[in-house]
Amino acid sequence: MATGEAWRDREVASRFASERAAIVPESRAQIDVLLHVLRQRTRPPGRVADLGSGDAVLLESVLAAFPDATGVALDYSEAMRERAAVRLAPFGARARVDAIDLRNDAWLKALDGPVDVVISGFAIHHLPDARKRTLYAEVFAALRPGGTFLNLEHVASATPGAEALHDEAMIAFRAAHVTNPDVAALRAAYHARPDKADNILAPVERQCGWLREIGFVDVDVYWKWFELALFGGTTPCS
């Protein structure tokens, strides 16, 4: 499978979407913290964009929490867009799904104007660092004054030792969701997972630095579990 294309594979995308609770630690806490940050805004979210939305679990949570919000789920994987359309169907005209590729700036045309919130979940780490930073600048330009950017992301560990701690924590989490787990087999499968080659990880501190340089304010890491982090910031109000 070509590097950068794993999530176009229907089997890879479908397995992740159907097994998320068993392979992503603290998924409920991630969403709870994301919603808490959005509830502290001076005004409720109006227009929301979900970049690399996958099956739109984040956008679903935001639209459910803010009944007056509308949103667009943007993803390059047809399999994920199909799942997103099903997940968002109960919201009717409040939600739509569009095909985009974050490797270029064409995604901005799908917004049809400025937005109040941009969210992203485990997508941007597939981009080279230079493109990550450029994308963050595009997000800044797409947000209204006082807009919010929240990125739930897989980030790089500070050291190889810390990376090993993360890997073993992930394997232990997955083992806890299996009856009579074969830990050695789980470890082998984890390290051989087909999407691993698509990961281009950057430290969260570096990425927060990029956000500050671009002009975001109140930049912080709002939640972190080893290499999983929710971070972001806001655009100045004036």
CATH architecture: 3-Layer(aba) Sandwich
The coarse overall form would be: globular
**SS elements, strand count:** 7
**Structural class from helices and strands?**
alpha/beta
Describe this structure in words.
The chain has helices at residues 10-23, 27-39, 57-65, 78-88, 129-142, 160-175, 183-191, 204-214, and strands at residues 47-51, 70-75, 95-99, 115-121, 143-154, 217-225, 228-234. The chain is of the alpha/beta class and 238 residues long. It has one domain: Rossmann fold (3-Layer(aba) Sandwich), CATH 3.40.50. A 7-stranded mixed beta sheet has the order 3-2-1-4-5-7-6, sandwiched between helices.
Which descriptors would you attach to this protein?
seven-stranded mixed beta sheet; alpha/beta; 238 residues; Rossmann fold; 21% strand; 8 helices; 7 strands; single chain
